[in-house]
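Propose amino acids for all 766 sites.
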């Protein structure tokens, strides 16, 4: 071997001996340290077993708990699970007040995790007490008290003196944990019971006289009718058990999730005083529908609610039997609800009284949450307030108020546009009130614009007042009362004012209301198709009389009056009809009417169109022919003839109209009428006395064509069928006297009620 190779071999051998020596030295050092540590631990353990054996610890724990709870505590055995962990088996706390001899608390085992070093200083510091599968039995006695002990919590650490060694131990517990516990509640007075299952709770640095942090999860089981519900709850917060002095109990910032729907409800809870608990709860509720609440028998309600935020403040009184809600607020989308009230669980079944109100919110789109309002096609904004009660198992709605602004909708055939007003319902919608201050309502073909209206429905009676509106662009005013609306013997009274009255247009409006209202009475309108030809005006009018107005009384007034036959000013009428049905077969009652400053239109033209008018106007046509012959001049008799005053008083008897008094006084023609007309059978028998004024004779007149004064006059009788009337000329000598007598007799009314209605301001009462 060369000298160079010998040097290399010596270097690697030396390096190996160096590493080997270092490793052996390190191994001996670590082994010595471990052996020393084991000897130290063994010494400490022997010292712990010698000084603080299981009997001592069990004795300390039992005595401490009995002192704190003032209840007997039983521990059957204590095992050392680890160097710093003890397990108590057969642990129970006996009840002495609620159900004496039964466990107030029982558990399969209790695990205690200790700190070892404080034991050397005569201190028992328990880092955590774990109750495994415990059962808590809370009992409410018949006198209203509970079996829960008041925990004794001295201001300083508790001390225990061992009977075996005479040494004092300072005892403290940091954390408490409950695994898979059961909390049961039983009311000995009512027999009601509740239970909480799967209870898992951890209290951090629990102090019974100050707020301590905790985490919890549980399953709350409730019974609703024949159904049982399990509600999962998880949460964190702070609690002050106040030594189990329930008057001073406090729960702060408890954040919890309640799995009531498919998504959890998030709750934030503050609670004080378990005797009469005061609570403040904030909840974040996910969207849900009536299907999610089937447990409460909400089938068929067909509603859903969007995600909402709820805040509740209140208290439980009368041993948890009376729930008082001082303030409840809920907000979802653009709706905010404020409510308050109470729920009394002491009554069987429970009773409640709640009231609430909302802000103004948009109506459009709300059918997505409550389908039954979809047919109304609502737009605009509205606000709702209501009171709901429950007594003897029945819910009632004492009051519901809805305010609307600029609302469009379709209500039972009434189309509303831009309506602002208020709706009020009392006693389950048996007492209704509504008013509008603006808007437009369309009833079939009739349009009420700029509507200022109020109406009420009470005890089967309807009251409606239109203070002002434009009916088909004509200013209009109405007062209407209907007694016993749903009865066949209903009575209707009305006062109506138009600025311009067209009777045929009015009949059209009545038809529109009949068309809309009749289906509400579960009947179909039975209108005949309009006819043309002879007497079409009569037959169309007769066939459209409303069947729902069997007793109809009131008054009509108008500034102007306009028909095909005549027109005028200051129209007034009073009537009291019975049997007002289509066909007029039962129409009975008086009618008195007056028209001033008017015109009788186009006699010659109308005579050509209607056979009855042709016969009635024949004497005037003859007079006109004589005028052409130069006998006298009466003006435009067969054209538009003015009058100053026209009045009529008649009585209907099953469609037959008896003329009590009728007259016309004017600068050209004055007349009086007597007799009767049967509108049903279309025949008549009337006498007409007519005297012509402002005439100039240019020739002699026959005696039967002059009055006693010598003025041209006519007296004639028209009778028989309206389609084939008969004309009989009578002596005209008493014409002037007859007309003066009719004028002096006048009418039996001054139309005072109508004038008071025009000048008054009528509104339905709330």
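Proposal:
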């Amino acid at each position: 071997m060369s000298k160079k190779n010998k040097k290399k071999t010596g270097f690697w051998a030396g390096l190996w001996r160096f590493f080997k020596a270092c490793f052996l030295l390190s191994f001996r050092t670590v082994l010595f340290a471990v052996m020393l540590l084991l000897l130290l631990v063994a010494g400490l353990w022997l010292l712990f077993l010698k000084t603080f054996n299981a009997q001592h610890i069990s004795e300390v724990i039992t005595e401490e708990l009995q002192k704190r709870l003032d209840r007997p505590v039983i521990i059957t055995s204590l095992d050392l699970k680890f160097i710093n962990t003890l397990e108590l088996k057969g642990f129970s706390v006996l009840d002495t007040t609620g159900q004496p001899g039964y466990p107030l608390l029982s558990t399969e085992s209790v695990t205690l995790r200790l700190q070892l070093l404080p034991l050397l200083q005569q201190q028992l510091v328990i880092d955590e007490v774990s109750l495994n599968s415990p059962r808590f039995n809370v009992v409410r006695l018949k006198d209203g008290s509970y079996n829960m002990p008041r925990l004794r919590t001295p201001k300083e650490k508790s001390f225990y003196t061992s009977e075996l060694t005479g040494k004092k131990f300072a005892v403290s517990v940091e954390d408490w944990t409950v695994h898979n516990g059961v909390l049961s509640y039983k009311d000995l007075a009512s027999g009601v019971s509740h239970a909480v299952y799967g209870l898992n709770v951890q209290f951090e640095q629990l102090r019974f006289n100050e707020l301590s942090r905790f985490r919890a999860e549980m399953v709350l089981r409730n019974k609703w009718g024949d159904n049982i519900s399990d509600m999962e709850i998880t949460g964190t917060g702070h609690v002050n058990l106040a030594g189990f002095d329930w008057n001073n109990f406090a729960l702060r910032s408890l954040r919890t999730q309640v799995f009531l729907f498919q998504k959890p409800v998030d709750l934030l809870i503050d609670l004080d005083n378990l005797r009469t608990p005061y609570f403040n709860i904030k909840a974040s509720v996910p969207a849900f529908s009536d299907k999610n609440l089937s447990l409460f028998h909400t089938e068929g309600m067909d509603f859903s609610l969007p995600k909402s935020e709820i805040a509740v403040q209140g208290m439980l009184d009368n041993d948890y039997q009376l729930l008082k809600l001082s303030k409840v607020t809920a907000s979802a989308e653009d709706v905010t609800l404020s409510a308050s009230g109470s729920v009394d669980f002491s009554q069987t079944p429970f009773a409640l009284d709640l009231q609430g109100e909302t802000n103004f919110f948009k109506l459009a789109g709300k059918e997505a949450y409550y389908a039954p309002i979809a047919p109304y096609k609502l737009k605009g904004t509205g606000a709702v307030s209501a009171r709901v009660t429950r007594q003897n198992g029945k819910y009632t709605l004492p009051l519901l108020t809805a305010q609307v602004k600029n609302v469009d909708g379709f209500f039972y055939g009434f189309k509303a546009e831009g309506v602002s007003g208020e709706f009020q319902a009392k006693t389950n919608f048996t007492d209704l009130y509504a008013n509008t201050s603006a808007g437009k309502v369309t009833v079939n073909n009739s349009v009420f614009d700029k509507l200022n209206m109020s109406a009420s429905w009470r005890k089967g009676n309807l009251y409606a007042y239109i203070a002002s509106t434009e009916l088909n662009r004509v200013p209009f005013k109405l007062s209407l009362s209907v007694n016993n609306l749903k009865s066949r013997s209903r009575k209707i009274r009305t006062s109506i004012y138009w600025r311009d009255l067209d009777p045929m247009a009015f009949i059209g409006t009545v038809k529109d209301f009949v068309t809309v209202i009749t289906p509400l009475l579960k009947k179909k309108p039975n209108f005949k198709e309009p006819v043309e030809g002879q007497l079409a005006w009569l037959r169309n009018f007769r066939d459209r009389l409303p069947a729902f107005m069997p007793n109809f009384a009131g008054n009509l007034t108008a500034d102007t009056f306009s028909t095909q036959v005549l027109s005028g000013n200051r129209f007034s009428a009073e009537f009291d009809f019975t049997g007002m049905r289509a066909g007029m077969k039962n129409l009975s009652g008086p009618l008195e009417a007056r028209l001033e400053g008017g015109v009788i239109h186009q006699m010659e033209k109308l005579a050509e169109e209607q056979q009855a008018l042709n016969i009635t106007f024949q004497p005037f046509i003859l007079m006109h022919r004589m005028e052409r012959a130069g006998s006298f001049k009466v003006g435009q008799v067969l054209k538009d003839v003015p009058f100053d005053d026209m009045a009529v008083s008649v009585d209907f008897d099953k469609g037959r109209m008896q003329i009590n008094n009728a007259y016309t006084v004017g600068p050209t023609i004055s007349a009086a009428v007597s007799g009767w007309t049967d509108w049903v059978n279309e025949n008549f028998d009337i006498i007409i006395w007519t005297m012509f004024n402002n005439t100039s004779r240019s020739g002699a007149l026959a005696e039967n064509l002059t009055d006693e004064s010598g003025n041209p006059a006519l007296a004639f009788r028209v009778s028989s069928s309206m389609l084939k009337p008969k004309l009989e000329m009578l002596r005209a000598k008493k014409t002037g006297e007859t007309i003066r007598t009719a004028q002096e007799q006048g009418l039996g009314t001054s139309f005072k009620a109508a004038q008071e209605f025009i000048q008054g301001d009528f509104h339905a009462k709330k």
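The first helix runs from residue 3 to 51. The two ends are 130 Å apart (CA to CA).
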